[in-house]
Design a protein that fits this description.
It is built from 1 helix and 71 strands. It has 4 domains: 144 residues; 155 residues, no CATH class; 260 residues; 130 residues, Jelly Rolls, CATH 2.60.120.260. Helix content is 1%, strand content 43%.
Length: 770
């Protein structure tokens, strides 16, 4: 009833699952479920204490428990269910003989003959982007055939894909592994060395949910509580309206942190999820189906094994200002009817466990048959920072691409603007069977393959038409697309990679007023398509691969008419040397021939390095070095460094012929003492400006910067500078990430060991200022 409060005492622990009392609040007078008193937030704990351990054999102990558990925790850390192999996957080496059986059984590689595989369960990859657990119904040691009880839901099994077998007592062979026998109720644990089980805190997840709100229990606020160790969710909301979940701490949940369970006929309306901390969930951090006007804002989500925030079939609403880091699949996964605003989120370090995903991902969720789209109006993805897509081969067999923003099957009427996408993985923005979307004012930096990609599948499920009807009417304008110098290629579009039929006239979208920042190659567009046949059956010689320059695009398909591509003379280079240097003898500008402008150049033979005027290569005079230098390299020094300070090394480099070089920074007093910096770079006949970052645990009055030279080549160096690093709003590309790929930003500063986007180690927090 209105005005009621259900308060739990701070500092208390409640090992319970609560079904909220059957009462309703009012929109302006909600029922409060929260905390009173002082101290730590009340803790709702879904685990049972596990004690009374008895030695079974060696370091294996057992005890009897009254409830089945989904996870076992030792002093708050999740332990490993007994499995084979102990780590990684067993690969599939051969498939079922008949196509229709390839969702049911396969032939593993090198699986030992053990009768207890039958009725054990297998963790299998359903697709590059999904996994499931299925019971093993048959094992034939003679043929090596492994049969699962249920079919795969999505793809068929493929050679090279992986699985592992778990919850097998006989595989309890490594410290930290456990097994639960549901017939006897006994739980077994392989004790790690040095652990006294009588003193250790052993807990097992046994309760489904912390708080459940059932249908028609409206206008309830859950605040200032802590949840841990639940099986299915910390908080579950079913077909209720006006629920507010704010200021809670949720961690170690075996499935979803918060669940919203609406239906098409009874949507969850006006749900607010705000300022919660959600960590270490086996599935999704926040999971919502059929929600109307949800507000999901200001939450901190980390270490989520699947998706940070999944909101499906939404009708309007907001997902804003959330920090999402370290997700197994996508950071945000959204589909909406209209008016969903995904705004100002920080998404970083995504797709560490699965592939074929994105920092922000959308799919229409059209029905399997019937073909009716739910989309009726515009949705927005804007002002987000998306960085550091990871991707994995493990268990998948093939690598599937990672994207910054991914508009998948039937995504339409999305407006993408003013997003900053840094090191997204393979592709910055990807349109797959997507139509009627607008993409403008986005900055895409350091994609491995393409800044923007288009792909058209011949068929999706059993409802999509085949051919070029799947992708059209997208508009791209005023985007800045920078392709990584280490990219496989430097292309912007990948049109019709797996289409049933595609030719150049089928690009029925508009792209113009874009800037392509790519000083390394002339061509900007790569086309890879099949003029006839299907993706699985391609006539010989029917694959067409083309690479086009900007002028080709303008003349052949009348696109990018007002777009521009940078050249060496443009002011579009990603880096520009500016500012006063606080290190002596640096920021050299070779307008005149003055030897004193350069740092000292010791240990080089006369004539090997000269100060020369090179017309058309660099401005004025530059340093010229040939490959006849001893060991093919030379160095400059007279730079002092301090411990734990990050330095910026900048230079302009050109070569007589295209090639490569390496730049190494070491102590001058001990040339073998590398200071943690060695960067391979590409060198071209046109000058290229580099900014490289490093730091060290050492302090030295002199360091050595060594440049290598390819055999037979000549390199030209100018404007060598070194100074303490300053990251400003124009240097988004130089944002630092730590060694587990978590970015250091203004939202989430962290300390530790870091690498920049060039792969170089640094060790101080650097802030991103959008």
């Amino acid at each position: 009833m209105e005005g009621t409060s259900i308060l739990l005492k701070r500092g208390s622990v409640f090992r319970e699952s609560f079904i909220h009392p059957n009462m309703q609040g009012a929109e302006n007078n909600k029922i409060i479920t929260g905390a009173y008193g002082t101290g730590a937030a009340p803790l709702l704990n879904g685990a049972i204490k596990i004690t009374g351990w008895i030695n079974y054999s060696g370091d294996i102990y057992y005890t009897h428990i009254l409830s089945a558990v989904s996870e076992l925790y030792l002093d708050g850390k999740k332990q490993i269910l007994a499995r084979y192999p102990n780590a990684g996957f067993t690969a599939i080496s051969a498939l079922a003989e008949l196509e229709e059986d390839r969702k049911t059984y396969f032939y593993p590689a090198n699986l030992p003959d053990r009768p207890y595989w039958i009725n054990a369960r297998a963790f299998v990859m359903d697709a590059a982007w999904n996994s499931s657990i299925r019971e093993i119904s048959a094992w034939d040691a003679l043929t090596g055939k492994l049969v699962l009880e249920t079919d795969l839901l999505y793809d068929k099994y493929a050679v090279g894909w992986g699985f592992y077998i778990e919850n097998v007592f006989e595989e309890l062979d490594a410290a930290g592994e456990w097994f639960y026998d549901n017939k006897t109720g006994n739980i077994y644990f392989f004790r790690p060395a040095g652990i006294d089980l009588e003193l250790a805190d052993m807990e097992g997840s046994a309760r489904d949910s912390g708080i459940t709100i059932n249908p028609d229990q409206d206008y309830i606020k859950i605040e200032n509580l802590s949840f841990q160790f639940y099986k299915k969710s910390a908080i579950s909301v079913k077909e209720a309206d006006g629920i507010e979940i704010t200021g809670n701490n949720i961690e170690n949940v075996s499935s979803n942190g918060i669940m919203l369970l609406g239906t098409s006929s009874a949507m969850c309306d006006c749900i607010v999820i705000k300022n919660n901390i959600i960590k270490t969930c086996t599935k999704n951090g926040i999971d919502g189906d059929w929600c109307k006007n949800p507000i999901i804002s200001g939450n901190d989500l980390a270490d989520i094994e699947y998706t940070g925030i999944r909101i499906s079939r939404a009708d309007r609403g907001e997902v804003s200002e959330n920090s999402i880091r370290s997700t197994g699949y996508s950071g945000i996964n959204a589909s909406a009817k209209e008016g969903l605003n995904i705004n100002a989120n920080l998404v970083q370090s995504y797709n560490y466990k699965y592939s074929d995903g994105g920092g922000i991902y959308s799919w229409d969720n059209a029905p399997i048959s019937g073909g009716t789209s739910i989309i009726t109006g515009n949705n927005y993805i804007r002002n987000n920072i998306i960085m550091n897509g990871i991707g994995t081969h493990e268990g998948i067999g093939i690598y599937s691409t990672i994207k910054g923003i991914y508009l998948d099957d039937n995504s339409s009427q999305w407006i993408l603007h003013d997003n900053i996408i840094i090191n997204p993985g393979d592709i910055g923005c990807f349109f797959h069977n997507a139509r009627s979307n607008i993409c403008f004012n986005n900055i895409i930096y350091s994609s491995k393959k393409y800044s923007i990609g288009f792909n058209e599948s011949s068929q999706v499920g059993d409802w999509w038409p085949s051919g070029p009807e799947n992708i059209f009417a997208n508009v791209l304008t005023n985007n800045i697309c920078h392709v990584n110098k280490h990219a496989i290629n430097t292309n912007i579009f990948n049109i019709g990679d797996s289409s049933l039929y595609m030719n150049i006239n089928d690009f029925r979208s508009i792209s113009d007023y874009n800037t392509f920042v790519n000083p390394f190659m002339e061509n900007i567009i790569f086309r890879d398509f099949y003029e006839n046949g299907t993706y699985d059956s391609i006539p010989a010689g029917d694959r067409i691969i083309e690479s086009w320059s900007l002028s080709d695009v303008q003349s052949l398909i009348n696109q990018e008419t007002h777009s521009r591509k940078n050249t060496a003379a443009d002011n579009l280079l990603p880096y520009e040397i500016t500012g006063q240097n606080n290190i002596p003898n640096s920021d050299f500008n070779s307008a005149v021939e003055t030897e004193n402008c350069w740092p000292r150049l010791p240990y080089v033979s006369a004539g090997a390095i000269t100060l020369s005027a090179v017309s058309g290569v660099l401005d004025g005079y530059c340093l010229k070095a040939a490959a006849d230098i001893s060991n093919g390299s030379f160095w400059i020094n007279d730079f002092g460094i301090l411990q734990s300070v990050t330095y910026e090394v900048s230079f302009t480099i050109a070569a007589a012929a295209n090639g490569s070089s390496s730049v190494t920074i070491s102590e001058n007093h001990d040339s073998k003492q590398n200071l943690g910096f060695r960067q391979n770079i590409q060198i071209y006949t046109a000058p290229t400006v580099y900014k490289l970052f490093f730091n060290t645990t050492n302090t030295d009055s002199d360091v050595r910067i060594t440049f290598s030279i390819n055999s037979g080549n000549i390199i030209y160096l100018d404007q060598i500078g070194m100074k303490e690093a300053v990251i400003n709003e124009n240097d988004h590309s130089l944002i630092m990430v730590n060694t587990n790929r978590t970015a250091v930003t203004a939202i989430n500063p962290e300390m530790g060991n870091y690498i920049d986007l060039n792969g170089n180690t640094v060790s101080l927090p650097v802030q991103l200022d959008p």
